[in-house]
């Protein structure tokens, strides 16, 4: 252990440092590093050296960052009240430092005078392991947070711990990002999880906080992962190797999905697995299943959350030749009317029109005017007809 502190310091200082994490203009990124500058005692490399209260706090933070259960600090030329300052430093790390507030149960300490310095020995009791501490991701920006959430959701993990700017440590904002991440992954949608968010420290005076996001899924990780594979296999069968595009492509996926699908508004499950594999689902599961099939076929599709006749309901928006249209997998429409404009559904459906693209009314078919009708030539019996290019053509008279 004699040179343990020196080795840890060397390895730790090689990690990339973070700067400007609280700036919303900073480039978004993810990192697993946490940098705290500290110096070992040249006379005893198993201890850290401190001369100010700030050094003392940094030393305690360093031990926690490394997951140490015990640490030694030598106070040189220290002018403050050692006993009070050591106690204050421990409380600051326990209550105000994001990592300390999340990871620690308690800190105990002893101090003694040794000739030219004070020796402080700290003992740390943790709620989390050193591996869990090392796995904390430092992320900057909403996109980086969403990316981390997608990784967890697609693997059905039970928790995610992030160090973020205090701006992003708002529970309502984080819940919104969880929802965005979940619905961006329809192939993994097997029922929205129960989500719990804890923030450390709860009231921060600094620029950083740690958030712990816990997920409770509808089944075990192994079961859900196996079902995700079944979802992908079922989708591949329905989509085929050479999926059609445009309106025909949407219709083929619509008809294949609805063939044998049992829809229940109240009793069905909001799961793509039940929609594609067992054939029983509610509108959310059906809409997400259709979205997933379209994505696999290279077609543009969104799942829409709104109401139908005043009750919660899900359906889809698809893009055909640059124009958006409504598709409700549960409506049982025929091919002639399964793509609909806003005005064709607004009497029964409601949705956030600011959140989703508009579906304009279809353009009326142009009617031919009397001038466009080709008159018959009475003299020779020929008929002048307009070709598709607009040029006059003559029919050869029958003999």
Describe the overall structure:
The protein is α+β, with helices and mostly antiparallel strands. The protein is 33% helix and 26% strand. It is built from twelve helices and 18 strands. It has helices at 4-13, 53-65, 82-95, 98-103, 130-134, 142-155, 171-183, 221-239, 246-258, 272-278, 283-297, 342-345, and strands spanning 29-31, 39-41, 44-50, 70-76, 104-114, 117-126, 137-140, 159-165, 194-200, 208-216, 262-263, 280-281, 301-308, 311-320, 323-327, 349-351, 384-386, 392-394. The strands form five sheets. Strands 1-7-8-10-9 form a five-stranded mixed beta sheet. It has a five-stranded mixed beta sheet with strand order 2-3-4-6-5. The protein has a four-stranded antiparallel beta sheet with strand order 15-14-13-16. Helix 2 links the parallel strand 3 (44-50) and strand 4 (70-76). Helix 9 (246-258) crosses helix 11 (283-297). The longest helix is centred in the middle third of the chain and has 19 residues, at 221-239. The radius of gyration is 33 Å and the shape is elongated. Mean pLDDT is 84; it is low at 5-26 and 366-399.
Residue windows where pLDDT falls under 50 for at least 5 positions: 5-26, 366-399
Radius of gyration: 33 Å
The average pLDDT score comes to 84
Please report the number of helical segments: 12
Task: Report the strand count.
Answer: 18
Assess the beta-strand content as a share of residues: 25-35%
Q: Distance N terminus to C terminus?
A: 112 Å
The coarse silhouette is: elongated
| Strand order within the widest beta sheet | 1-7-8-10-9
Please provide the ordered H/E string of secondary-structure elements. Answer: HEEEHEHHEEHEHEHEEHHEHEHEEEHEEE
- Pairing-aware structural class of the strands and helices? alpha+beta
How is the biggest beta sheet arranged? 5 strands, mixed
Assembly level: single chain
Helix content: 25-40%
